[in-house]
Amino acid sequence: MPKSYSGDLRERVIEAVEGGALRRETAERFEVSVSSAVKWLQRWHESKSAVPKPRGGSVSPLEEFAEQILDLIAQQPDLTLVETVAELRKRRIRTSRSSLWRFLDRHGITLKKGSSWNRVGKFEGLKGRKARYFRDLLHFCRVQNLAQMLDGKDIETSSAALGYVFI
After folding, report:
1. Which long-range contacts (CB under 8 A, 24 or more apart) does 5-13 make?
2. SS3 content of the chain, % helix, strand, coil (to 5)
């Protein structure tokens, strides 16, 4: 994004117009657009200031809920980004995955699987569908009793129930 014109240039344009020159002629003489010269003069008449307005610096609406969001992350550090968004929506905090990610990034927080995931075990050497299968199976086993899941069934039937087919 281009820089703002200097305050000095703005003051010289304003002085020239206040001294009796036409706005269009002054704009041509100082090589600025006519609309810029007009806006500078309007601002000068309103606030007696030729200084450029501050630029950028928007504030995320999530900053209003920063304490609640950071408390949730502290209480439940193993939530994924999508799970965190769902939990925030339950608490009537409207957000999206991308805006939450930017908020957490500004606050130096990452939602990586922490020590509890490492205790369960990593599926080293597995990639892609097989790794996802075993992670999903592990999650499924936590929710359901393992004995009920495999009662009288072989592993092929269980994998098909989860929607995985290995060739």
Report:
1. 5/32, 5/36, 5/52, 7/50, 7/51, 7/52, 10/40, 10/50, 10/51, 10/52, 11/50, 13/37, 13/40, 13/41
2. 60, 0, 40
Q: How far apart are CA 164 and CA 133, in angstroms?
A: 7
Residue with tokens 């820089």: 3
pLDDT of residue 34: 95
How many whole angstroms separate alpha carbon 49 and alpha carbon 41? 9
pTM summary value: 0.42
Q: Where are the alpha helices (DSSP H) in 33-124?
A: 34-47, 66-75, 81-90, 97-106, 115-120
Residue with tokens 């999903």: 136
Q: Is 116 exposed, middle or buried (0-12, 13-18, 19+ CB in 10 A)?
A: exposed
C-alpha distances in angstroms, 13 versus 3, 7, 74, 115?
18, 10, 55, 63
Rounded Cα distance, 111 and 77, in Å: 7
Q: What is the C-alpha separation between 143 and 137, in angstroms, rounded?
A: 10
Among 75-79, 87-91, 155-159, name the one with the lowest average pLDDT.
155-159
